[in-house]
Each structure stands twice: as structure tokens, then as C-alpha cells.
Amino acid sequence: MDEKAPAGRLPERDRPWVMRTYAGHSSAAASNALFRRNLAKGQTGLSVAFDLPTQTGYDPDHELAAGEVGRVGVPVAHLGDMRALFDGIPLADMNTSMTINAPAMWLLALYGTVAAEQGAELARCAGTTQNDIIKEYLSRGTYIFPPAASLRLTADLVAYTLLRMPRWNPVNVCSYHLQEAGATPVQEVGFALATAVAVLDAVRDCGQVPPGRMGDVVARISFFVNAGVRFVEETAKMRAFGVLWDEIARDRYGVTDPRQRRFRYGVQVNSLGLTEAQPENNIQRIVLEMLGVTLSRDARARAVQLPAWNEALGLPRPFDQQWSLRMQQVLAYESDLLEYPDLFAGSHVMTALVDGIVTGARAELEKVLEMGGVVAAVESGYLKSALVASLAERRRRLESGADTVVGVNRFTETEPSPLTAAGADAIEQVDPAVEAAAVAAVREWRAGRDGAAVDAALERLRADAATTANLMPATLECVRAGVTTGEWAGALRRVFGEYRAPTGLAGGTGAGGDATLAAVRERVAATARELGSGRLRLLVGKPGLDGHSNGAEQIAVRARDAGFEVIYQGIRLTAGQIVAAAVEEDVDLVGLSVLSGSHLAVVPAVLDGLRAAGRGDLPVVVGGIIPASDADALRAAGVARVFTPKDFALTGIVDDLVTVVRHANDL
After folding, report:
1. Disulfide check for 52: which of 187, 439, 545, 550 has CB 3.0–4.6 Å away?
2. Which of 546, 561, 588, 630 is catalytic?
3. For residue 442, is it within any domain?
């Protein structure tokens, strides 16, 4: 732009944010090809999606990995997979974001080793490991170890990158998943900042970082946020984040350089807010949500990745991802947004909105700190219960019509959509042979290693884990020896143990004002009387590695409000564990929740297990992101009902569960 630009404009147009697409599926080779295609289309950074076995520290041939390999991301089991994933992509010149948490140290060790093999200087490598383990206990479910051990791994990684990879963001504090789990803007800001404080306190107290370097640590902490469709409020939320982060960095950690206190964040707009009904409406939702994190120059995202219009239907195709990338490019290059200073400076409306969120979020943060910090708030169940309650209130507003979702609870009349006319062809299909190939490949990898070197590396890892030593050197030795993802995590499981987070159901209730619930409650009681039992018993199960438990928890809360006795043991259960619980608890109905796309593998395994246990008569229902053709297959296999995101009325779903029980018992 000309330096004599008209008054009110910037002398030079701002550079656009980093544009990413969250991508990865099937195999390292297939994902590499997808990365190359996206980069050729003008994407300026990579955002790697890993499959659930990788995220939870299992190899493709583990029992819990069945049906999950390559489905929601790329499987990376060892150094060979990481080499294939980035083959021909110069990591020294790339900005790579990796959505990985519990095994973040492991994946960064693999990434750094491949970069070094390419001849890159680690000090030049730029990117981010998500590495926010706290939100995994609250919303996403890919935790492995207890909170204290997990924070130790995070602190070790922060200390390592400070010295060896100073351009790397070692942790990406995530409010994104908190919003999906029900957080209000106030809770989202307050809880995320409580997590950031826990991470920084752990780094400060670990003894590995000189006190004079805390400003450098704070400067590399980034955030990953969610942007909903209420984009004016979302803009205020981002400005509030910046105000409080500056305050915390200055007052709690003594950071004097304003540049180091700058709030740095990337964003993916709200995937779970996309709808299966009238999915064409998702296009405008995505654009409006993008505005919430780009309109305000003083609070603009550093990196943006957008979901695709069909993510409520299944895995997006390359065309769908291209469409979302083009949305960013049109805003950045065709519009005049980047030519102006902050559009909200001096706005009384925005100032009032920001002040309200700052006040509320500061109170939430102080409450968590008074409880002993975010780890104590996780372990007590406070945070999870607060999110379950907030999500229940959000669902109540949707069901009552107080909140409108176009095409779902209002304006539901519609024409057939040409976008979905192709049926299953409207989403990316993962070849079932992918899993078998991954299983064979990891076994071949193990067979070709130096067994003694592997054993020695794992022994060092276990020994170091029992001390306060930084675990990155031992992890790098494991990488070089050919250790697998499952072996690395397994060695640490032996030292740290595993963890099962509170479900938060105790504090959840969401039926207030639902006039139809009384009638359903009477049906539940009448059915129990006819069966001669005290109460109907519902087992809610999460088979496989899918940790997105919001839907399961909301069904559990509403069913309990309707009079069911609900047995919910949390996430990540094998088919055998679910069958055993169903038999032992003598339940009347089993409800399975699967959002990862593994339903055609994990649901039949439960059905087969029930038949083998002599309970083939027990009705099973399934909920999740399930294409119509897959729903037909599940019903043919013996599933009584299939619910998808279009079934938003929870009380109606619970009423249908009563009908299923009655039909199963010939009532």
C-alpha cells in the first residue's frame, strides 16, 4: 500500500495469519500426499492430526486400537512413520502444529530427529506441540498419566525447547475443547488461564529454568482457542484473554518486556457447532466464526485453521478442506481487512463486553487457585462438573427454543441438498485395509530392530522417570533405538500409572423447564414396575479410544433425571469391559457412544460379546457421527436404534430408550 494511504488506514497492509488445515488420515504416506497438495494450494503451515492410538500411547496392534487406526488422523508408531509423514517437506522452513498431548514429548522427539536427519538446525525449527494435558481430563479424553506426572512431562519439554528449539512453542494451552465441553466465555478464559498458570508454575518450580529466563518461557506459551458463531462476543473474549494474560505474566511471573507478555494464539473455529441437518448452513457459520478471531487487529489470531462444511457427517475430503482454505484466502487477500488499525478501538460496546468477561474470568481463576490450582480442581471434579452443568444449560436452551440453530430447531423446512446427494461419497472414506497394513508394518518394524538397544533405551527411560531428571534425553535415545509409541508410553505407564478422570455427572442436571420430562419419567417408572424391578438400568459405554464424551454425559444426565439408574464408567473401554459391566450390573439397556468413526468395528464387538455372555437379548443403541449407510449396517447387525447429531432433543431420545426397553421385553 502507498505510504500516503488515506487517513485511518495502515501505512502498510498487514501480513496474513498462518493458514493451516487440520489434516492426516489412513497412513503416513497418504497424509504426506495430502500435506503436499494443501501446501501447493497456498496453505502456509501444517497442522497434523494424529489417530487416537497415537494420541493415547498405543501401537496399531493393541486391543484398544481396533477400529481406530488411521481414522481421525495419521498413525505414527515409530521413527519410520515420522520419516514417511514429512518425506520431501523441508522442516527447517515449515511451521508445524501437532495436535498431541500426553505423548507430546515423544512426537516432538520423533519430529526433531527427522528434522536433524534432513540437515535442519533444531534452533530454526518453528511450530507447536499442543501439549495441554489438563483439558484432556475435562473434555477430549486423550490423557494417559495422572495430572502431576503429565505436568512433569510438560515442564521437561518446555525446559528442553527453551535451550534447543527456541522458536518452538512447547505448549498450546487449549480453551478450544473447553468451549466444546460447555464452557461459557467466562469459564473458557478463566479455566484456560488456570491451566497456563499450572504449566508455568511447574516450569518455574522444576529447577531446570533459570529465574531470569521465565520471560523467554512466557513468550513461547501459545494458546489454542475456539471461536463460536456469536462472533461479537468471541471478539470480546479474545481481547479479554489478552488483558488477563498480560496481567498474569507481569504480576505473577515478573515479565517486564511487553513483547514477551503478548497473547499469542491460534484458532480452529467451532467444529461441534456444525450441524448434520442442512449442512450447507455450516459454510456461513465457519465464515462468521472466522471473523471473531480476525476482525480485531489487536487480538487477531496468529494462525487459523477452519473445519469443513461436512465434519458433522464424517471425514472431510480434499475438496472440502480446499473450500475452507479458500475462505481464509478470500478474507486475507480480497477483502480490505488487513489495511486498517483495530476496528474496535474506542468502542464503548466492546469495552463493556471485554470488562465483563475479564471480571468474571478473573473470579473463576482466583477460585481455582484458592482450591490449590487446576490439578486440584481436576481431581476434585469441580472443573468437569462445572462444564457438564454449563453444557446441560446450553442443551436446555436449544431444546426449549430459547436459542435458535437454523435448520435444527427452527427453519427446518428444506430442499434436498446437492452437497449430500452423493451419500457416503460426500465424505472421505478410510479403507478398512489401512489398519491391517499398519499392524503388519509395526510388527515388521519391531522384528528389524536391535532388541538389546531397545531394552536398554526403555530401561533408561523407566529409571529416569523414577527421578526428577528431564526425560527428553532418554526419549531421544528411545527414538534412535527404534522404540514404538506404545512401548514408550507403556514404560512410563509402569512408573507413573494410568488415570481415570472424574466424569462430572454428579453435578449435572439439565431438565429444568422441560415440560415433557414428567411424562417420560412416568413411562420409566411404569416400565420398571411392569418388569418387577426397582428402576430401569442404563449402561452408557464409550468403546475404543474415542474420548469425546460430551454427548454420552448429556444423555446420562438426562436419563438419570428421567428416573433411569445410569451406570457410566467413563471413556476408553474395551468391548469385553462393557459386556462385563452390562452382565454384572444386570442392566436393561446398553447405550454406546462413538464419534471417531470406528462404530463398524467396536459396536459389533460389543454385540458379539453380549451374545457370547448369554445376553444377546439385551437391547443396544448407538449414538455418534454415523453416515446413513453405516446406520443401516448397524441396525442389520442387531442395534435397536441409531442416533446422530440431528437428534438434538435429549428428552425425546430418552423416551425412545424407554420404548426400546419395552419392545425388548414384549411390553
Report:
1. 545
2. 546
3. no
- How far, CA to CA in Å, does 483 sit from each of 476, 480, 487? 10, 8, 6
Options 160, 548, 561, 630, the catalytic residue: 548
- Name the catalytic one among 143, 160, 176, 382: 176
Helices 185-205 and 348-370, axial angle in degrees (round to 10): 50
pTM for this model (two decimals):
0.89
> For residue 387, what are the β-bridge partners?
none
Mean pLDDT on 397-418: 92
Residue 412 lies in a domain: no
**CA distances in angstroms from 560 to 565, 607, 651, listed in the order given:** 6, 24, 11
**Terminal-to-terminal C-alpha distance of the chain:** 76
Q: DSSP alpha helices (H): ranges in 174-251?
A: 176-180, 185-205, 214-220, 231-251
Give the strands of the sheet with 537-541, arranged side by side: 565-568, 537-541, 589-594, 620-624, 641-643
- The number of beta carbons lying within 10 Å of the beta carbon of residue 329 is 15
Domain closes at, from 400, 422, 450: 400
Is 455 one of the catalytic residues?
no
Helix (H) or strand (E) holding 268: strand 265-269
Amino acid 72 reads V
Q: Is residue 377 part of a domain?
A: yes
Could you tell me whether strands 95-99 and 46-49 are parallel, antiparallel, or unpaired per DSSP bridges?
A: parallel
Domain assignment of residue 252, yes or no: yes
**Radius of gyration of the CA atoms of the chain, in A:** 25
Q: Which of 575, 571, 473, 555 is nearest to 511 (CA)?
A: 555
Classified as helix, coil or strand, 567 is strand
Predicted confidence (pLDDT) at residue 505 exceeds the cutoff of 80: no
Report pLDDT digits (tens) over 259-288. Answer: 999 999 999 998 888 998 999 999 999 999
Pick 422 or 173 by higher pLDDT. 173
**H or E stretch covering 538:** strand 537-541
Q: What single-letter DSSP state applies at residue 666?
A: T
Catalytic residue among 62, 177, 237, 599: 177
Asked about 160 being catalytic, the answer comes back as: no
Q: Select from 361, 382, 400 the last residue of a domain.
A: 400
Residue 196 belongs to what domain range?
Answer: 18-400
Decide if pLDDT at 1 tops 50: no
Per-residue pLDDT tens over the stretch 27-76? 999 999 999 999 999 999 999 999 999 999 999 999 889 889 998 899 99
Active-site annotation holds for 177? yes
Residue where the block lists cell 494410568: 498
Establish whether 542 is a catalytic residue: yes
Signed CA dihedral, 27, 120, 464, 200: sign only: negative
Q: Which of 62, 237, 542, 599 is catalytic?
A: 542
C-alpha grid cell, residue 405? 440453530
Indicate if 22 belongs to the active site.
yes
